[in-house]
Amino acid sequence: EADIYQTPRYLVIGTGKKITLECSQTMGHDKMYWYQQDPGMELHLIHYSYGVNSTEKGDLSSESTVSRIRTEHFPLTLESARPSHTSQYLCASSALGALGTEAFFGQGTRLTVV
Amino acid sequence: AQKVTQAQTEISVVEKEDVTLDCVYETRDTTYYLFWYKQPPSGELVFLIRRNSFDEQNEISGRYSWNFQKSTSSFNFTITASQVVDSAVYFCALSEAARGSTLGRLYFGRGTQLTVWP
């Protein structure tokens, strides 16, 4: 069973609000990822990190930002939420240095911006 | 470029039927890894299997089996005697062995929604 946690599970928020989606893992994994999943199911990588103080943008352009100050914590922030940000956000982690290691996923945060 | 194609968007079967989910991939790497994940209605992605590019042995785990064929770049997943609890979205994914800063990231297919009716 994976030890990666996302909070909140569900969030409904008004346009213009600042929000932070939390992601924490207790497995000591160096690699962490944020994926955005639209209702059409497809997963898009929006951010990733290979360790503390390392963050990179993924394939899908996103107005969100991330930080990695501690190994176990990889929060995602939207400074000003818009309806176009409505989506499910999935956080994942995997071990660094082990080729082909599977990623473990959190349960996701379903965000609705009204 | 890496790409994973799951041509079946939705599949519906009746309980106890066998069902195969197709996955076709593209990569220029000689070393790569293939995965299947299950996403139940609760939302998290659950890891099912990993296969590396040098191991073409098919694998069976209970009612699940996987058929990896490099010649056709396919990694298909079969559920035997399906059950209602198998209803979920299933994702096929590919990761490359080594390429700079993107080491280890997963490229996902669009997913196949499987519905098993009682």
Topology, element by element:
The complex is a heterodimer of chains A (114) and B (118).
Chain A (H helix, E strand, L loop, with lengths): L3 E4 L2 E4 L5 E7 L5 E7 L5 E9 L2 E4 L7 E2 L9 E3 L8 E8 L9 E2 L3 E5 L1
Parallel strand pairs in A: 2-11
Antiparallel strand pairs in A: 1-3, 3-8, 4-5, 4-9, 5-6, 7-8, 9-10, 9-11
Chain B lengths: L2 E3 L4 E5 L4 E3 L2 E3 L5 E8 L6 E7 L6 E3 L2 E6 L4 E6 L8 E9 L9 E3 L3 E6 L1
Parallel strand pairs in B: 2-12
Antiparallel strand pairs in B: 1-4, 3-9, 5-6, 5-10, 7-8, 8-9, 10-11, 10-12
Describe the global form of chain B.
globular
Number of alpha- plus pi-helical segments of chain A: 0
**Please, what is the oligomeric state?**
heterodimer
Q: Helical stretch count of chain B?
A: 0
Taking the alpha carbons of the first and last residues of chain A, their distance comes to: 34 Å
Structural class of chain A: mainly beta
The largest pleated sheet of chain A is described as: 7 strands, mixed
Low-confidence stretches of chain A: none
Main interface pair? Answer: A-B, 29 and 28 residues
Summarize the amount of helix of chain B as a percent range.
Answer: under 10%
Number of strands of chain B: 12
